[in-house]
Design brief:
Blueprint lengths: L3 E3 L8 E2 L2 E7 L5 E7 L7 E3 L12 E3 L16 E7 L5 E7 L7 E5 L2 E5 L11 H4 L2
Antiparallel strand pairs: 1-7, 2-3, 3-4, 3-6, 4-5, 7-8, 8-9, 9-10
The structure holds zinc ion.
Length: 133
């Protein structure tokens, strides 16, 4: 599927090729670039070997263009949001966990939620997830 992913703040396209480029910061405050897969449910993350991340580490994530935080605390403090435009130009909200190693993604449009990842159940109790769009 050919989709584009946008920053919800400045609406810059964040994907190049099959990857989404995100600025990140680890718990120690060290900064790095993450490459996420454009394919929902694919949790391969590419990063430079000098950017150390531990399993279950809480990340901060930012737009690489406007540097606005992508965190969506209205849903949960661990949840981040970007926008997706599908091939029919329909816009979806993509929510995903900022816990490194946690496999959890929600695709939301018209209050319908599709879930991806084995940890997706973790935040589904948060009723805000449905109400946020
Ligand atoms: Zn931005």
């Amino acid at each position: 599927m050919k989709a584009n992913y946008l920053c919800p703040n400045c609406r810059t396209c964040l994907n190049i090729g099959d990857q989404i480029i995100i600025s990140a910061k680890n718990e120690e405050g060290k900064k790095g670039i993450l490459l996420l897969s454009i394919f929902l449910g694919d949790y391969e993350i590419k990063k430079h070997s000098s950017f150390d991340l531990e399993e279950n580490e809480k990340l901060d994530m930012y737009c690489p263009c406007c540097f606005e935080s992508l965190r969506n605390p209205m849903v949960h403090d661990n949840i981040f949001k970007i926008l997706m435009q599908d091939e029919e130009d329909q816009e979806h909200e993509i929510l995903f966990s900022g816990i490194y190693g946690e496999r959890c993604t929600y695709q939301i449009r018209d209050k319908k939620v599709s879930t991806f990842g084995q940890d997706a159940g973790k935040y589904l109790n948060y009723t805000n997830l449905i109400n946020m769009s």
